[in-house]
UniProtKB/TrEMBL annotation:
InterPro entries: 3-OH-isobutyrate_DH-rel_CS (IPR002204), 6-PGluconate_DH-like_C_sf (IPR008927), 6PGD_dom2 (IPR013328), 6PGDH_NADP-bd (IPR006115), HIBADH (IPR011548), HIBADH-like_NADP-bd (IPR029154), HIBADH-related (IPR015815), NAD(P)-bd_dom_sf (IPR036291). It holds the Pfam family NAD_binding_11. The keyword Glycoprotein does not apply. Its EC number is 1.1.1.31. Keywords: Branched-chain amino acid catabolism, NAD, Oxidoreductase. It catalyses: 3-hydroxy-2-methylpropanoate + NAD(+) = 2-methyl-3-oxopropanoate + NADH + H(+). This is 3-hydroxyisobutyrate dehydrogenase. Pathway: Amino-acid degradation; L-valine degradation. Belongs to the HIBADH-related family. The keyword Oxidoreductase applies.
Length: 289
C-alpha cells in the first residue's frame, strides 16, 4: 500500500481521499478550510497543518484545487520538499498551458507528473466511479494505476503532458453546446404543441440522443432524477461549466482554432452565470423561453 498526500479536500477531493483510505492506502491530507479538514479526519485521512508537511514522505502527491493559479502556487511550495521518486498527479481542472507548466516544474525537480482531470462530479467522486483523462509519459501513467483505481470507473491515457486537460476542455465544450441545443429543441417543441414526453421519446431513440437529454433532461418529467425536477439544484453548477468554457476559449484563442458554436455557448453561459451560477447548467433553458 502507498503513502499518498492529498491536497485539496473539498467537494471532490474529500470523497476521493476517503476512497483511497478505504482501499487501504495511508492518506496524508491538507486543506486550509477547517470544515474540509474535519470531514477528512472523520474519513480516516491523517490531516497535517500545511501542504509541505503532508507531502513529506509521500510516494504519490495528488492535488485537487480550484484553479491553475493555486496549483502553480502549491507546486512552488511542495516540489522542493517532495521525496525523490514521488509521483505528482494533478486532478484539478486547469488550462492546458498551466498543466504543461507544472509538468515542466516537476521535471525540473526530477519528478514525474501527470495531469488527470476528472468527469463525473461529486456523485462519481463519492461512488469511486470518476472518469480520469490522463496526460503524461507511459511510465508515469503505468505507475499511477493502483492510486487512481479506487477513485475511478474509467482511466484513459490521452497522451503527453496536458493531453488530459485538452480532452477535458473539448468534452465540456461539446456538452455545453449539446445542453443548449436540447433546451432549444424542447422550447421549440412546446411552441409547436408537442408534449415534452413525446419529444423525449423520439430524441432518445433517434440521432439527437445525448447525455444532455437522456440523463440531464432540462424539462421536468421524462427523467425523474434530472435537476429540472428539483428547481435545477446541481448536478453540475453553471459556475463550473462557465469556468471550463473559459479554459476552452483560452485554448481556442491560443491555438487560433475555429469554434463558432463553442464560442457562442461560452458567451451564453458567461451571461447566465452572472445571475445563476449556483443552478445546474441545464437551467440555461430558462433563457430560451
Ligand atoms: P472545492 O472548492 O470544493 O475544493 C477545492 C479545495 O481546495 C477547497 O476545500 C480549498 O480550501 C482547497 N485548497 C485551496 N488551496 C489549497 C492549497 N494550497 N492546498 C490544499 N488545499 C487547498 O472544489 P471542487 O468542487 O472539489 O473542485 C476541485 C477541482 O475539480 C476544480 O478544479 C474543479 O473545476 C474540478 N471539478 C469539479 C467537479 C465538481 O462537480 N465539483 C467536477 C469535475 C471537476
Amino acid at each position: 500500500m502507498t503513502t499518498i498526500a492529498f491536497l485539496g479536500l473539498g467537494h471532490m477531493g474529500g470523497p476521493m481521499a476517503a476512497n483511497l483510505v478505504k482501499a487501504g492506502h495511508t492518506v496524508h491530507g491538507f486543506d486550509p478550510v477547517p470544515a474540509a479538514v474535519e470531514e477528512a479526519k472523520a474519513n480516516g485521512v491523517n490531516v497535517f497543518p500545511a501542504g509541505i508537511e503532508a507531502v513529506a514522505g509521500a510516494e504519490v502527491i495528488i492535488t485537487m484545487l480550484p484553479n491553475g493559479a493555486l496549483v502553480k502556487q502549491c507546486y512552488a511550495e511542495i516540489l522542493p520538499v517532495a521525496q525523490t521518486g514521488a509521483l505528482l498527479i494533478d486532478s484539478s481542472t486547469i488550462s492546458v498551458d498551466d498543466a504543461r507548466e507544472v509538468n515542466r516544474l516537476a521535471a525540473d525537480h526530477g519528478l514525474a507528473q501527470l495531469d488527470a482531470p476528472v468527469s463525473g462530479g461529486v456523485k462519481g467522486a463519492v461512488a469511486g466511479t470518476l472518469a480520469f483523462m490522463v496526460g503524461g509519459t507511459d511510465e508515469a501513467f503505468a505507475s499511477a494505476q493502483s492510486t487512481l483505481e479506487p477513485m475511478a470507473g474509467k482511466v484513459i491515457h490521452c497522451g503527453s503532458p496536458g493531453a488530459g486537460q485538452a480532452a477535458k476542455v473539448c468534452n465540456n465544450m461539446v456538452l455545453a453546446v449539446q445542453q443548449i441545443a436540447i433546451g432549444e429543441a424542447f422550447v421549440l417543441a412546446e411552441k409547436l404543441g408537442l408534449a415534452d414526453q413525446a419529444l423525449f421519446d423520439v430524441i432518445t431513440g433517434a440521432t439527437g440522443n445525448c447525455w444532455s437529454v437522456h440523463t440531464n433532461c432540462p424539462v421536468p418529467g421524462p427523467v425523474p432524477a434530472s435537476p429540472a425536477n428539483n428547481d435545477f439544484k446541481p448536478g453540475f453548477a453553471t459556475a463550473l461549466m462557465n469556468k471550463d468554457l473559459g479554459l476552452a476559449m483560452d485554448a481556442v484563442r491560443s491555438t487560433s482554432s475555429n469554434a463558432p458554436l463553442g464560442s457562442h455557448a461560452a458567451q451564453l453561459y458567461a451571461r447566465f452565470a452572472e445571475q445563476h451560477s449556483d443552478l445546474d447548467f441545464s437551467a440555461i433553458i430558462q433563457t430560451l423561453r
